[in-house]
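Sequence in, structure out.
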Amino acid sequence: MTTAQAAADRLWEAEQSGITIDPLLGDIKEGDVEAAYDVQLINTERAASLGRRLIGRKIGLTSLAVQEQFGVYEPDFGALFADTCYGDGEPIPARKVLQSRVEGEVAIVLSRDLPHADTTIVEMMSAVDYVVPAIEVVASRITDWKISIVDTIADNASSGAFVLGNRPVRLRDVDLRTCKMQMTIDGQVASEGVGEACLGHPLNAALWLARTMAKRGTPMRAGDVIMSGALGRMAAINAGQRSEVNIEGLGSVRAVISAEES
């Protein structure tokens, strides 16, 4: 068994059992980003083989400060599956989002394929069908979030679930660079930010993803969802709590972590 397979098996078992594991540095060398993506791919393909449907990608590490913290100089990505997509206010079982945290983001839905490794910003803008406010419920299968860059990438970029708002907005009707974001948990302000906190503009993050996925031979397709990255700091959320994100020009969306385990 390869070390990548061993690491993938550990993460898969943690997700299935709901029991977190120690960091992966025994299986992956520190800073070996490509090995970490190999682990992620094993579990993405395993999930697909079991009938889970890939519907897009999430982008992480869009904050320059967080990149510096991890010693990397570009974002990372993970897979989005249909069974992790929730509607506004739809309860999310706590067992599906281990050690959950939430982030306010802009979700981008594509109307056309982006097959080119040199995709331009014009092509990116033309491919956007609409945007909506979103909440990413970040999760970690690594105990106490003691993660390095290889842990988060291997662990599907620490993906848990995501919630989409239900009022689509065209790009021409919102300024994604200057839009202000506020996130509350049970009515208390937990995070604030602005669109340009996401690589200077959420479309910059989406463009990076489009080019990266094309280079890897798995380009973004029409209908895909892109979770473009956090507009402010993440905040911990517990079972039974409710988060709400308001983004100027886009409206609001709510995430509810169900106290029920099933």
